[in-house]
Amino acid sequence: MLSTVIRPKFRLSTPLVSRYFSISSSILNNERILQGYRDSLSTLPPPKRNKLVKLRKELPPPEEYISEPTFQHPIYDVNEMHQIKTDHREATTMSDSIALLGIKILRTTFDFFTNYREPKNLQDNIEIAKSSNRMTPEKWLTRFIILESVAGIPGSVAGFLRHLHSMRMLRRDKAFIETLYDEAYNERMHLLTFMQLAEPGLIARSLLIAGQGVFCNIFFMFYLVSPKICHRFVGYLEEEAVHTYTRCLEDLKLGLLPGLNDLKVPDIAKNYWHMKDDCTMEDLINYVRADEAKHREVNHTFANLNLSGDKCDRNPFALEIKDVEKEQPSKTLKNHKAKGWERSDLIL
């Protein structure tokens, strides 16, 4: 069976995120060091032209009729948001390995089409920032838009299939559907927010159409066969998303992205995340990263549960159990576990 633990010699012993470095807080919180990096970037060669998206000169005018979000976003604690870190759950089963392989293929393809280079260390990051191939606001928004156009698919497909299964079997779904649709809605709000800041060109739109058509159908077929593989896949996908937004935040702190923090945060984002009027792009990216971290936790947890049959577990994120001795999942970042909750730790 796919859930059977395999022998160590078949394990993917190298974590997917092991090749990604994170800048230490001692550097990010040292203003003297940060200013030195900013000064070294005072004269830069022109960046390579980005043909996928272009920045909007100003935010689109507000629409006349705007409905309230169907799924209200929970209020995040700011300190908990800033504690989010890149993390990785090792593949220990054959199904985990299949999911991880799928993510490696997807990530490689994604990097190729968005002309992205992953830095090996801080010095390499600085060298990239000094080159014509550096990450610009346009290139970051390209990655964000393509990433979010894909990330919104799994929740909607999984929710749709579980909805049909619930009606077909004439029984309740134990609250998975709501969380999955909420996740898809949340990812779409990310996309709509970034679409207010940049407009994709013809090539980008073609990539989105082709990517959505291929990925949606593949995910649909895999979810019919093994929901666990699919949720582990999404967990690994969200690990990549957390890393992407973490690196963007680090580049902002290092002063490698002049211009990005000057962009105005769209009203759709302020309304959805309950943000203050004087919020910045750094604040916005922190909120988006927190959402991705929550999806990482949720999907890694779902992959550890019984998801079908008479012994199907309940969704532990749908109902917060209080006044119990051991910690339980929440709808916010409280008791957050980046690698997901093990089934034995949950009250089901």
TrEMBL record:
Q: Does the keyword Transport apply?
A: yes
Family the UniProt entry places it in? Belongs to the alternative oxidase family.
- Binding residue positions for Fe cation 2: E187, E238, E292, H295
Parts of the chain that traverse the membrane: 140-161, 202-225
Spell out the Gene3D superfamilies in the cross-references: Alternative oxidase (1.20.1260.140)
Organism equals [Candida] arabinofermentans NRRL YB-2248
The record's subcellular location field reads: Mitochondrion inner membrane
Q: What does this protein do?
A: Catalyzes cyanide-resistant oxygen consumption. May increase respiration when the cytochrome respiratory pathway is restricted, or in response to low temperatures.
* The protein's required cofactors: Fe cation
Q: Which keywords fit this entry according to its UniProt record?
A: Electron transport, Iron, Membrane, Metal-binding, Mitochondrion, Mitochondrion inner membrane, Oxidoreductase, Respiratory chain, Transit peptide, Transmembrane, Transmembrane helix, Transport
Annotated GO MF terms: alternative oxidase activity; metal ion binding
Q: Where does Fe cation 1 bind?
A: E148, E187, H190, E292
Copy out the cofactor comment: Binds 2 iron ions per subunit.
- The name on file for this protein is Alternative oxidase
